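QA checklist item 7 of 12: single-chain prediction sanity check.
[x] sequence parsed
[x] length recorded as 146
[x] structure emitted
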Amino acid sequence: MARSVFLTFPNDANVHGTVFGGRVMSWIDEIGALAAMRHARKPVVTVLIDAVGFCVPIRVGDFAVVEAVVTRAWTTSMEIWVKVETEDPFADTRQNAAQAFLTFVAVDTDGAPQPVRPVLPETDDEKTRFAEAQARREQRLAARRG
């Protein structure tokens, strides 16, 4: 698991005073990579970002809370679930702002895929995400085959 909190500034935002989607996607990729590296204990590369769903805007001055969890690992790849919440620092309220699933592959210094340890789910939520990850993987592989 990896988690980070960002204070949002005007340079993060568009003319509406809300954080650029690209900035949020960058945070998602960075925190996802951190979670994948922690799990694999190896360098990783992003190979896929599923559709990023934006729910509510993150406004200038809000905190962006970005959290990533490894849902499942296969031979060399890992699925990471990233959620982004917007937090009003003065009201202590949070809302779901975005989420995405990413796939990372562990690599060596030459970029060759490397094995990763399995995920061992313990809680009911972890077991559900673990099972759903396999279904998502099968859909991704089917889409690649065309």
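[x] summary fact logged: The chain has a mean pLDDT of 96.
[ ] second reviewer sign-off
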